[in-house]
Amino acid sequence: VEPTLSLTICTLIVAIVTSVPLGAIAAARAESKLDHTIMGFSVLGFSLPVFVLAYLLILLFSLQLQWLPVQGYRPISEGIWPWFRHLILPSLALGTVYAALIARITRASVLDVLSQDYIRTARAKGLSEPLIIVKHALRGGLIPVVAFLGPAFAGLLGGSFVVETIFQIPGLGRFYVQAAFNRDYTLILGMTVFFSTLIIVFNLLS
User: Fold this and answer.
1) How far is CA 44 from CA 23, 31, 57, 191, 206, in A?
2) Which residues, at least 6 apart from 201, have a Cβ–Cβ distance to it below 8 Å?
3) Fewest CB atoms within 10 A around its CB: which of 51, 93, 126, 202?
4) 46 three-state secondary structure
5) Alpha-carbon distance 58 to 53, whole Å?
6) CA 84, CA 76: separation in Å to the nearest integer?
């Protein structure tokens, strides 16, 4: 459970830290070249298959630059840096898709908030545009993002088997794939019920 949970948390951190600011910037500069560029990258992000991006990251950062390990996992008990070092590439590969989706959700939501009356009142009072975006627009604009994170968290726990298989991470997803190869139907059924329950619970929580 620890490898999958670690990968899930790191993936969501990568996705949120990169996507929310980009989505807010795109909304603030709507229909500009910067907006089109950010949205273009977001389309590329969720159109590119995860396994293709994973192998590209391995080729660049592991084989060419030799900065990060190709595969494997280290428990957090062996140290923060070894643990984090083995999660960087998997988190980037998996987080790109979620970052692209969250960026588009953030942009649409912030654009909707920016058209509200209280935003026009804030502008009439002389507040700067960055302050309006950060203090007022994002506060309401992040509600759809929070609603998305619940099922996204559950989906990552159950749907990270591709990345776990590529990077040889001994998590729940890879365990699920091995059960399918071994034709362990009882285990497959049990894990399917477990993942389905997670999705329902996190949908209700969000």
Assistant:
1) 15, 18, 15, 32, 27
2) 154
3) 126
4) helix
5) 9
6) 8
Give the list of residues 6+ apart from residue 137 with CB closer than 8 angstroms, or none. Answer: 24, 27, 110, 113, 114, 119
Low-confidence ranges of the chain (pLDDT < 70): 158-159
Q: Which residue has the tokens 């030799």?
A: 66
- What predicted TM-score, i.e. pTM, was given to this entire model? 0.81
Residue 104 and residue 42 in contact, taking contact as beta carbons nearer than 8 Å: yes
- Provide the token pair at 107: 């942009």
Report how far residue 120's alpha carbon sits from residue 20's, in angstroms, rounded to the nearest whole number: 22
The predicted-structure confidence for 144-181, as pLDDT tens digits, reads as follows 888 888 778 877 776 677 888 888 888 777 777 788 88
Judge contact between 83 and 7, C-beta under 8 A: no
147's tokens: 């609603």
| Residue 144 one-letter amino acid | P
Backbone angles phi, psi at 171, to 5 degrees: -105, -170
Q: Rounded distance, CA 92 to CA 85, Å? A: 12
Q: Which residue has the tokens 């700067």?
A: 128
Listed in sequence order, the residues at least 6 apart from 23 whose beta carbon sits closer than 8 Å to its beta carbon are 38, 102, 103, 104, 105, 106, 107, 110
- Nearest partner of 22 among 50, 42, 8, judged by Cα: 42
SS3 of 83-118: HHHCCHHHHHHHHHHHHHHHHHHHHHHHHHHHCCHH
First to last CA, the chain: 22
In tens, the pLDDT along 51-73 reads 888 889 999 888 888 888 888 88
